[in-house]
Amino acid sequence: MKQKMRIKLSVNSEKCRKKAMQVAVVADGVTSVAMEGEFQDELVVVGDGVDTASLIMALRKKACHVTLETLEEVKKPQKKPQVEEKSVTPHFCIAQCPVVSNEQPRPEVYRIVHDSYGPTTGCLVM
């Protein structure tokens, strides 16, 4: 179960932020640590199986006074089942298909017409 913790730092100094990041990164189960907030005074820790109480105690002991603002479970986004789009070719009857099932197929006769661009192109239109 992934957890997301938002921890408020009481002292807004570069030294306190740096030390808090170092303590949070080495905690067991932590996958990401980030500084957020208007004054970069909130530490956001995401992890799986993180002992929140021991992390808060370690931060208070080694960095500065901290307060746990929020603790929430991170849910994985549900993937929508992908619908496979099948390209359906339109059904049409070839010249050999009978229209009615008891008719005999009639062969089609094609007339070859020369291309209007002249004999130099070598194209024949059917």
Automatic annotation (TrEMBL):
> Any idea which GO molecular function terms this record carries?
metal ion binding
Where the record annotates domain HMA, the positions are 2-71
Tell me where on the tree of life, at the top rank, the source sits: Eukaryota
Name the residues that span the membrane: none
List the protein's name: HMA domain-containing protein
Biological source species: Arabidopsis thaliana x Arabidopsis arenosa
